[in-house]
Write a structure and sequence with these properties.
The protein has 2 domains: 79-338, Beta-galactosidase, Chain A, domain 5 (Distorted Sandwich); 392-751, Glycosyltransferase. It has 17 helices and 27 strands. Strand 6 (125-126) and strand 7 (133-134) form a beta hairpin. Helix 10 (493-509) packs antiparallel against helix 11 and helix 12 (570-589) runs antiparallel to helix 13 (596-604). The two termini are 27 Å apart.
Length: 752
């Protein structure tokens, strides 16, 4: 069974099974792994349900129903975690994966990778147009216990906690729990806690090494997770000794680069982070360290001084101290309330969540040393659903409208910028269960109208042209002068994508007040943009020329389309038509002024279609019959089926699916496979849908904590936590179809 084990745990030289002389006897395999100090686990059919530290050939692209997973003795989860683990509420690891695969701890305002040195505030960016990235801050809750043995790590979905448990050789029977969280109720509050779980003595002493070093910021290994190198410093901090006390340390920072409006941006962190590394716990007490943060963006886009920011951070710190005994309970209760909405996975009778374990003695020393558990398909899906929603909820909130990056809040991948993924993958996944959070995503687009109007004017257009890669209040990351091509300038379908998101939100909520005050201004300015962007090619046709389509491999190799672009990209023209039609409908509904040209252009804008084959064509002069060497990456034509329901019939849907799915790139399964799943479900093709579902399930999930990434993880480039495939569960497996009059649900049992 070569090339089936996770990197670093290789047992490739032990070959057995079909085609080999030796059969894969489970006891022999377990004994072989026990004899290898680097082997922490294996599976008997060549495929891992979750890759521990990256994966060998293809293992992340497949799922099977019966996987025997080995767990070494001494690495079993704590007894008090078992019920939550067996019900998909905790993801557990031991040994703990590489720090690049640790989970996000966040509340939509602040976020960090658990125990890491980096902290991020949603909306806080460093640099100006042309060189914009999410500003990295030092995390006051990062660090590790250094004197104990780590015996368990767990991500608790329902409580939004990350916990580690340690035991100590010199204090037998003593177990300390180290946990971190960022408060859901007090958004700027970060908490680091230590609790004694069990002990044979009255107290336990241990050493703790913090990563928090704001004055030097020398500890930042996370740069290796996004392909960077060295230590990235975005904010220069000083210690304010005048405002600091014995129980509160005040660090004031200023971003090294002024923003696009040439203003200084300030950050202040208040913390109880101790100078001492030695900590002592008793059974009747716990240790808690509280930290808070405030920055200039808390006060809006206008200039603000450092002292105002600092006083806000101190006020937040004082409030946290007055509630310190209730912080954890209030945080946990707030998350429990969030989890009242969502999807419940009920296992089928023949595939329960928890299957019997086999325990035996492989080295024949009279002591059991191996536990074999059988993979539960239902539990695996439940874990993926819960982890997907957890990461979405961690990066969003109702009261902080600064968008969601594909990389999540706690990662620098994608530079923390907003793409159309937010509008078409993240927002719809939240919409059925958390409509207020979905509305907050569209509030970000509404708050971006001023910047988007500026971008349109730079290009010589009217209305709003949304930046393909957007930062604070919609400010563009690139293409700052309106010149040049490539995706930053010419991937303009994003503007129409926002209109489709408005449509989805309204169809789901029927909120007329929202439509009048938020939806209409967006639709109006988007329609103005498209009416100025089109070219009248003859008396009967309008075109949109020189754009980057959604399919960024539009020259059929793994590169961009270059500086020129193509004409009449199918999805771009489709979203433009929806934008114009919807703006007219909403304008008429509220008796607003509507440009009559909107309706005329919508009816005459070119949609490439082969009437002989009843198939959509990607753009002008595209191959009518794509060859195996023509790749679609990512999706474009099938977006017309879902989520748009645009110019399709059952026959057209099938023709488009059979034409394009087979030539869609494998590298972007997290974005394409969910759409394919939905399309095959709509065509009543459950086996084809399941194949795409499985591909999506594993393509973007890495490590025991389900860290998300859009494409394969490589040793030196670990991208963002690509939440995009959550749509597979929220919209694919259950097939929630947002239409003007109904929501339809289809059975999900085929996947269990």
């Amino acid at each position: 069974m070569p090339k089936t084990d996770v990197v670093g745990h290789d047992i490739a030289y032990f070959e057995c099974g079909e085609g080999y002389e030796i059969q894969c006897d489970i006891e022999i395999l377990a004994a072989h792994c026990n004899s290898n100090p680097y082997c922490h686990g294996f599976n008997t059919n060549g495929l891992l349900k979750s890759c521990t530290s990256g994966c060998d050939v293809g293992c992340c692209y497949d799922v099977t129903e019966n996987v025997d997973l080995y767990i070494r003795k001494g690495f079993l989860p704590p007894d008090d975690w078992l019920n939550d683990i067996n019900n998909g509420r905790i993801l557990y690891a031991n040994p703990e994966p590489h720090f690049c695969f640790l989970p996000e701890i966040a509340n939509g305002y602040l976020g960090t990778v658990a125990m890491s040195a980096s902290l991020f505030q949603n909306g806080l960016f460093n640099g100006k147009c042309g060189n914009v990235g999410k500003a990295r801050l030092p995390s006051p809750i990062g660090g590790s216990i250094t004197t104990g043995q780590l015996i368990a790590s767990g991500l608790h979905f329902q409580k939004a906690l990350f916990t580690r448990r340690y035991q100590f050789d010199d204090q037998i029977g003593s177990i300390v729990e180290h946990r971190v969280y960022i408060s859901q109720t007090l958004k700027s509050v970060m908490v680091l806690e230590f609790t004694l779980i069990s002990s044979t003595s009255k107290f336990v002493t241990f050493s703790y090494a913090s990563t928090f070093d704001p004055l030097n910021q020398t500890h930042n290994p996370e740069t290796t997770c996004t392909g960077g190198g060295g230590v990235e410093i975005d904010v220069e901090f000083t210690f304010n000794s005048n405002l600091s006390t014995s129980s509160m340390y005040v660090y004031e920072g200023v971003l090294l680069s002024r923003d696009d409006h040439n203003r200084y941006v300030y950050v202040t962190i208040c913390t109880q982070q101790p100078n001492e590394s030695i900590q002592t716990l008793t059974m009747s007490s716990s240790i808690q360290f509280v930290s808070t943060l405030a920055s200039s963006i808390d006060f809006g886009p206008d200039p603000i001084d450092q002292i105002t920011v600092t006083l806000e951070a101190i006020n937040r710190f004082d409030e946290a101290l007055t509630k310190r005994n209730d912080l954890l309970n209030e945080h946990v209760q707030a998350w429990k309330n969030l989890w009242k909405s969502g999807i419940d996975i009920e296992p089928m009778e023949n595939q329960p969540f928890v299957l019997p374990r086999i325990i035996f003695d492989t080295d024949k020393d009279g002591e059991n040393d191996t536990v074999i558990t059988t993979f539960s398909r239902a539990l695996d899906i439940a874990q993926h659903v819960n982890s997907s929603m957890y990461y979405l909820l961690s990066s969003s909130r109702d009261d902080w409208p600064h968008g969601m990056s594909p990389g999540g809040l706690a990662s620098q991948s994608y530079s923390g910028l907003m793409f159309f993924d937010m509008d078409w993958y993240m927002m719809p996944a939240l919409l059925p269960f958390y409509p207020s959070r979905a509305a907050n995503i569209l509030r970000y687009r509404y708050n971006s109208l001023d910047e988007s109007n500026k971008i349109a004017r730079i290009f010589g257009y009217n209305g709003s042209m949304f930046a393909w890669t957007a930062s604070y209040l919609g400010r563009p990351e690139g293409c700052c002068d309106g010149k040049g091509g490539w995706e930053l300038c010419i991937e303009q379908h994003i503007t129409g994508d926002v209109a489709v998101a408005v449509q989805m939100y309204y169809y789901a909520t029927k909120d007329n007040l929202w439509l009048e005050n938020i939806g209409w201004p967006l639709l109006r300015d988007i329609a103005k943009f498209w009416s100025s962007r089109v070219t009248k090619t003859n008396d009967t046709t309008y075109s949109i020329e020189k754009v980057m389509p959604v399919d960024e491999w539009c020259d059929n190799v793994q590169t961009k389309c270059g500086d020129i672009g193509i004409n009449n990209a199918i999805q771009t023209n489709a979203v433009a038509i929806v934008s114009l039609q919807l703006a007219k409908q909403v304008g008429d509904m509220f008796k607003f002024d509507v440009d009559p040209e909107w309706d005329i252009i919508a009816k005459k804008l070119k949609i490439n279609f082969n009437y002989t084959t009843q198939t959509h064509i990607q753009w002008d002069n595209a191959s009518l019959t794509p060859s195996p060497h023509n790749y679609v990456c990512p999706e474009d034509v099938l977006y017309l089926t879902y989520p748009m329901n645009f110019n399709v019939t059952p026959e057209i849907i099938r023709n488009d699916a059979e034409t394009y799915i087979s030539i869609t790139c494998q590298e972007n399964a997290g974005m394409t496979a969910p759409i394919h799943t939905i399309v095959w479900l709509m065509l009543n093709e459950p086996l084809k849908a399941e194949r795409e579902f499985n591909r999506s399930l594993q393509a973007c999930t890495y490590g025991e904590f389900h860290v998300r990434n859009e494409v394969d993880i490589h040793a030196d480039i670990i991208g963002g936590h690509g939440f995009k495939y959550v749509k597979n569960y929220k919209d694919g497996s259950v097939e929630i179809a947002l239409r003007p009059m109904f929501i339809r649900a289809s059975p999900v049992e085929i996947f269990l």
